[in-house]
Amino acid sequence: MRAPIVDGFRFDRSSLLACALGRPSAAFGPMYRRFDGPTRVARLPSPPYHFISRIAEIHGPIGVMQAGARVVAEYDVPDDVWYLDQNGSRHMPFAVLLEAALQPCGWLSSYVGSALTVDSELGFRNLDGEGRVLAELGAGAGTLRTEVELTAVSATAGMIIETFVVNCSLDGRAVYELRTVFGFFPPAALAAQAGLPITPKDRDLLERVSNAEIDLDAEPAAFFAHPTLRLAGSMLRMIDRIEGVWPTAGSAGLGQLRAVKEVDPDEWFFKAHFFQDPVQPGSLGLEAMLQALQAFLLHEGAGIDLVAPRFETVATGPMHSWKYRGQVLPQHHRVQTTLEITARGRDERGEYAFADASLWVDGQRIYEANDIGVRIVAGEARA
């Protein structure tokens, strides 16, 4: 496939990598030359957290920040890649699928020249989203096609808010549908983020006396012994230990859990996300919530009656939503994930659980997700 050319500039593979690590003018042409020096600008994540293979189509003028611009990006799902090796089964983790859906939004924000509309440096952050996953992707699944439209733009007080509609498909089959909002913010605005409101119920779950101390780095058998029904490997795993499991707590009496991850400033994702602006990807915060939910089900012995059981990386079908109002930075110390089970049961595919979850950094509640779910399904029996 030939790379698209706009105003004489070729948007090929090298331009994508330049958007992550190179000169911005090599990513978007001469309009971004002012950012080739020390001035920071929004970037794509770099490998191993870069999930765009090519730009297939561009619709709309370059450097014009207005609704209606569209891009089609493609990602070739490999047969062998780190996240398949790290996951319990060889299926794309939700965090990777979410990045494959969101990274083209960031690319389109840069293509329309958002950073050129103000004189100061701007950080680029995802704020919220809602969507539903309709299909899983296994190893070597093919080419994931992501179609993104910029549907709304609002600029005020040096900040820019942009809304996108995203549709991911594989060979014409819908994989993920979502609507999401991003923002460009001056550094002072990012530093002043106050987090999300904290209810007494939220506070109780965060501060409740621990009733467990399960070190996941030691890979205890209950969570890692099964070849497929297990938690992720160390590179993908976003919870270090479980410090509380309450199987009958919560409004529905279905259970609550609290997990912890100590912040390591040398963690790989700070280097990949982003160049000159290290921050934990929000997608990995959602992955922490899903892993905590998986841990709850493993703790309760769920799915053991199924043939070759494995986790769906996120429950396919129902809607889910998330909201980010803060960030995890290398200088932070502790991330805690709390969740409350809102539904458990079985359907024609297997055993499922849904939860509402929060992610906290050094005591501040910065992420929340509603109706996130995992399902244990039967896999392929080994001969």
Notes on the protein architecture:
The structure is a single chain. The chain has helices at 13-21, 24-28, 82-86, 94-111, 187-191, 200-207, 221-224, 268-272, 282-299; strands spanning 5-6, 9-10, 54-59, 70-77, 123-133, 142-156, 159-170, 173-185, 214-215, 241-246, 256-262, 309-312, 320-324, 334-346, 350-361, 364-378. It has 383 residues and is of the alpha+beta class. The strands form two sheets. Strands 3, 4, 5, 6, 7, 8, 9, 10, 11, 12, 13, 14, 15 and 16 form a 14-stranded antiparallel β-sheet that branches. Strands 1-2 form a two-stranded antiparallel ribbon. The two termini are 40 Å apart.
Put the structure in a nutshell.
This protein is α+β, with helices and mostly antiparallel strands.
Topology:
Elements: E1 5-6, E2 9-10, H1 13-21, H2 24-28, E3 54-59, E4 70-77, H3 82-86, H4 94-111, E5 123-133, E6 142-156, E7 159-170, E8 173-185, H5 187-191, H6 200-207, E9 214-215, H7 221-224, E10 241-246, E11 256-262, H8 268-272, H9 282-299, E12 309-312, E13 320-324, E14 334-346, E15 350-361, E16 364-378
Antiparallel strand pairs: 1-2, 3-4, 4-6, 5-8, 5-13, 6-7, 7-8, 9-10, 10-11, 11-14, 12-16, 13-16, 14-15, 15-16
Helix pairs in contact: 4-9
Supply database-style keywords:
383 residues; Thiol Ester Dehydrase, Chain A; 2 domains; two-stranded antiparallel ribbon; 20% helix
For the record, give the distance between the C-alpha atoms at the N and C termini, rounded to a whole number.
Answer: 40 Å
**Rg, Cα atoms, Å:** 21 Å
Topology order in helix (H) and strand (E) letters: EEHHEEHHEEEEHHEHEEHHEEEEE
Mean pLDDT: 96
CATH class term of the largest domain: Alpha Beta
Q: In the CATH scheme, what's the topology name of the largest domain?
A: Thiol Ester Dehydrase, Chain A
The total beta strand count reads 16
Categorize the overall geometry: globular
**Helix percentage range:** 10-25%
Under CATH, the homologous superfamily of the largest domain reads: Hotdog Thioesterase
Overall domain count = 2
User: What fraction of the residues are assigned to beta strands by DSSP?
Assistant: 25-35%
Structural class: alpha+beta
Low-confidence stretches: none
Largest sheet: 14 strands, antiparallel
> In the CATH hierarchy, what is the architecture of the largest domain at level 2?
Roll
Secondary structure tally, helices: 9
